[in-house]
Amino acid sequence: MKTEVKRPILVIAGATLSVLGALWALIDPAGLVLAAAGVLLLLWHHLRPPVAATVAGTLAGAAAGLSASLWVRSEQVCCMFGYTEHRGWPYAWSERGGVADTEAEARALAQAGGWTTNGYHLAADLAFWAAAGFLIAVLAGAAWRRWRERAAR
């Protein structure tokens, strides 16, 4: 019996993304989003989502999610007196900090010093938000197609 794979790139990408997402989920639940995106890639031929809308949704999800994650802010004062401020979700990818003799001086140093970017966390956030946009676009496209097919009956 011979099995023909019509889109081997989608199968390879879907399997890889599913495995990486599952491994990532062992560390952080955000990996479940990547695993779900991988499963949808594996089911691509069954769902038949519109390709252009899916690509647009993936790119929009990555850009909008990354931009919106900058609103999530955490700050910490530690260790007589170190001040750090982080932005980004699910991983803080932009940060600034300062160390001084008082908390007010440490905060002023951090604010004067400017922001730094953590490239690894930025890449992880970008992957997360792109996968989230992909999930929404594929599911919305499949629902739209099913609704149109039922309306045509």
Task: Summarize the structure in words.
This protein is an alpha+beta fold and 153 residues long. It has 2 domains: 1-47, no CATH class; 48-152, no CATH class. It has 6 helices and 4 strands; from the N terminus they run ααααβββαβα. It has a 4-stranded antiparallel beta sheet with strand order 1-2-3-4. Strand 2 (82-87) and strand 3 form a beta hairpin. The radius of gyration is 21 Å and the shape is elongated. The model has no long low-confidence stretch (mean pLDDT 90).
Please report the distance between the alpha carbons of the first and last residues.
37 Å
Rough outline: elongated
Radius of gyration: 21 Å
Query: How much helical structure, as a percent, in the residues?
Result: 55-70%
β-strand percent reads 5-15%
Count of individual beta strands: 4
- SSE succession: HHHHEEEHEH
User: pLDDT under 50 segments (min length 5)?
Assistant: none
Number of domains: 2
Mean pLDDT: 90
Figure out the total of helices. 6
The neighbouring-strand order within the major sheet is: 1-2-3-4
Structural class: alpha+beta
Major beta sheet summary: 4 strands, antiparallel
Give a quick set of tags describing it:
153 residues; alpha+beta; 2 domains; 4-stranded antiparallel β-sheet
How would you summarize what this structure contains?
The chain contains 6 helices and 4 strands; from the N terminus they run ααααβββαβα. By secondary structure, the chain is an alpha+beta fold.
